[in-house]
Specification:
The chain is an alpha/beta fold. It contains twelve helices and 21 strands. Bound molecules: S-adenosyl-L-homocysteine, iron/sulfur cluster and FE3-S4 cluster (F3S).
């Protein structure tokens, strides 16, 4: 990376690029709102932005490498005056984990801000514009959310972070270190933010948290409440049509939350419940604190109250010491569940995590083979799930235009992508009959 050139004195335009999980997407939106509240204008591409915010993810190896190559690319793409360079801010989980290293390795980066400090972004940008470099990666107990501007506009499908951080310390995972301890946002703040999102155009809200089902707060009367009470309160908003939540931990699936799936119509029939592996020995080494059996029992209880629920999961193949036989147990679990969709990853050793120093790391070619077999099984099941949906009638929330003229894209209640042709607008909630299915999407026609 070359030497730092002078940044435009005070950035007037900005571009926020988010990687990683939905919580990062939420944070990216909040940072954009903060910068807009300073009078700056959002632009779509980073070539013309005076300030580029890279909102990074640290969960797996390549994500970090991507940040460094992105930093290089931003300088190259810059189409501002010769001799100047855009201001680069690195935010998110890589900033938290490797902020000092980024400052040392990338002289063109002027701002490094962690996920719990980004409400300070405008003053940090001002300091950088005055010629300095600014780093903040504290995890203050002070409420970041209270310092953010009020929500104004929203896409039809909105994210709302209700819980942050993680106390579970799975041995492979960086999240407890990059996001800190579990905290729940207060009930009344969330109801207020949800109302603003709905007033701004949201028809669907997805409640977010690294462990969203560990959310706990007090209601207006000071009674202890869990996530199902928040979902119930939001379901009473007349203009809010759909509620989702992600990501849940199997051990925090309470009876109350499970029952909510059978009782609240606006709670969509979809559950993302990561399991990671099918072998109890591997789960123990991962510190997952659930077994394959206890996980399957949770799914059974959810299916009992909501038989049509679409199930989703996360998997890691090649955790240190995973044998062929143990991997077969993952495939058996997949067969037993029949997932509607799922994410699967090769184990990636993360610095500072206990698993990184475990013995018996699995060879890359073995990981490749296991991932291929797992993904073939998951693909087979998502196709089967989608094929079984053909002929069903359901609601679709129109989220964006499709590739073809007159085509629209939206989501079914089961979170399937559905495309269809009709005379509509973004944000419409329409009834559709599903007529054709592939592994990743369906087509429908308007009823
Ligand atoms: N809080 C959520 C999400 C964590 S990150 C949960 O508990 O599931 C999302 C997914 O990334 C995880 O579920 C896991 O499957 C994967 N992941 C996390 N760390 C990983 C690592 N070191 N290597 C490979 N995959 C990882
Ligand atoms: Fe990571 Fe485990 Fe926490 Fe999920 S529950 S964020 S995988 S430590
Ligand atoms: Fe990535 Fe941080 Fe989310 S590491 S997955 S952006 S919590």
């Amino acid at each position: 990376m070359g030497p730092a050139m002078s940044a435009p004195t005070s950035p007037k335009t900005f571009h926020v690029k988010s990687f990683g999980c939905q919580m990062n997407v939420y944070d990216g939106e909040r940072m954009a709102e903060l910068l807009a509240a300073q009078g700056m204008t959002a632009v779509d591409s980073n070539g013309s932005a005076d300030l580029v915010v890279l909102n990074t993810c640290h969960i797996r190896e390549r994500a970090t490498e991507k940040v460094y190559s992105d930093i290089g690319r931003i300088a190259k793409n810059w189409d501002g005056p010769v001799g100047t360079a855009p201001m680069i801010a690195v935010a998110g989980c890589v900033a938290q984990a490797e902020g000092d290293e980024i400052m040392a390795r990338a002289p063109s980066v002027q701002v490094v801000v962690g996920p719990q400090s980004y409400h300070h972004l405008p003053e940090m940008v001002a300091r950088a514009a005055a010629g300095g470099r600014a780093t903040e990666t504290d995890m203050p107990a002070e409420a970041k959310f209270a310092a953010l501007p009020k929500r104004r506009k929203s896409a039809p499908s909105a994210f709302l972070t209700v819980q942050e951080g993680c106390d579970k310390f799975c041995t492979y995972c960086v999240v407890p270190y990059t996001r800190g301890a579990e905290i729940s946002r207060p009930f009344s703040d969330l109801v207020e933010e949800a109302k603003l999102l709905v007033a701004g155009g949201a028809r669907e809200i997805t409640l977010l948290g690294q462990n969203v089902n560990a959310w706990a707060s007090q209601d207006d009367k000071g009674r202890e409440i869990g996530l199902e009470a928040l979902i119930r309160a939001l379901a009473a908003e007349p203009d809010l049509q759909r509620i989702r939540y992600t990501t849940s931990h199997p051990n925090d699936m309470t009876e109350g939350l499970i029952e909510a799936h059978g009782e609240i119509d606006k709670l969509m029939p979809f559950l993302h419940l990561p399991v990671q592996a099918g072998s109890d020995r591997v789960l123990k080494a991962m510190n997952r604190s659930h077994s394959a059996e206890s996980y399957l029992r949770v799914l059974e209880r959810v299916r009992a109250v909501r038989p049509d629920i679409a199930l989703s999961g996360d998997f890691i193949v090649g955790f240190p010491g995973e044998t062929d036989a143990e991997f077969e147990e993952t495939l058996q679990l997949v067969d037993a569940v029949g997932y509607a969709q799922a994410f699967s990853f090769k184990y990636s050793a993360r610095p500072g995590t206990p698993a990184a120093t475990m013995d018996d790391h699995v060879a890359p070619e073995i990981m490749d083979q296991r991932l291929q077999r797992l993904q073939a099984a998951l693909q087979r099941d998502s196709l089967a799930f989608n094929l079984a949906s053909v002929g069903k009638r359901c609601s679709v929330l129109v989220e964006r235009k499709g590739k073809l003229p007159g085509q629209w894209l939206g989501k079914s209640p089961w979170l399937q992508s559905v495309h269809f042709t009709a005379d509509l607008a973004i944000g419409d909630l329409v009834d559709v009959e599903l007529i054709e299915a592939g592994p990743n999407s369906l087509s429908g026609h308007l009823l």
